[in-house]
Please model this.
Amino acid sequence: MRIGELARQSGCGVETIRYYEREGLLPAPARSAANYRQYGERHAERLAFIRHCRALDMTLEEIRTLLAYHDHPERPCHEVNGLIDAHLAHVAARIRQLQALETALVTLRARCNGESEAEACGILRELSRPLGEDELPDPGEGAHLPGAHG
Amino acid sequence: MRIGELARQSGCGVETIRYYEREGLLPAPARSAANYRQYGERHAERLAFIRHCRALDMTLEEIRTLLAYHDHPERPCHEVNGLIDAHLAHVAARIRQLQALETALVTLRARCNGESEAEACGILRELSRPLGEDELPDPGEGAHLPGAHG
DNA sequence: CCTTGACCCTGTAGTGGCTACAGGGTGTGT
DNA sequence: ACACACCCTGTAGCCACTACAGGGTCAAGG
Model:
């Protein structure tokens, strides 16, 4: 199987697959006479594993750790559990942050009906107010999960 | 006021302020004889506006739009409302995504008590399963808000 | 006067996880 | 013979910073 077919099968881009290879997540496959990458079922499975983890928003570093267990089936797996728990905590923290954000935005939105000039707009007024201590984003809790933009 | 004091006052780093200047969000201030940036109250207010928006997880591009209204108080402000609504929709979409993720992770986590070898670990087994159609991340809905890692 | 140390300057490179070229080669169908 | 889809490598861009390197400035203390 060539890279294009693997990309279609896995639902990710050709360039992404090459990127995973550069990053050491996918082993370098054999090459055809024309220097085309030739993938087998093992590669497809490993890529599925990676995509599954990415769909759960894990970092490539976390995935590297999980792949190490995948590759060493004799090891005890409790660290796997710890990794998932930690990731779950990150996700939960990010959800709480975004919900606080949502509340703040709803409050902000209610300050203007859109019929004023910018001068009088309650939203712009509110945004000009300096931030209070409690409104600063908490850098500790959500560490390593991105914000609202994907 | 020099850049360090402005940084302390606004709660962001010195380098971030210089970055906002490069990006055109903050106007270039006057310089002292020693070529130090000299800020006044106007700069502090504008930076507070920017930090307030960033605390609400808006992009610099969105902030640029809002600043344009800030700078032209005679304009009608309904576009401001639209921007906030759109941003709110992004945040709400991201929350839904992360909640789905959380559910998936909780399910995954329940598959192993951490006492197996990796070979038998239900988590690793589950991750090796190819993704179903419905498990693919939806690239449309959450566009422009980041995922779980910050 | 000299040193220490905090602050400031510019410019460049790195982060993560891709994505998008440029500039070339290969393989298949008509 | 040609078009066109596919493949290759390598590099640069995305966002919002962050972290240097390598230098200049300034006030306090000895």
In short: The first helix of chain B runs from residue 3 to 10. Chain B has six helices and two strands.
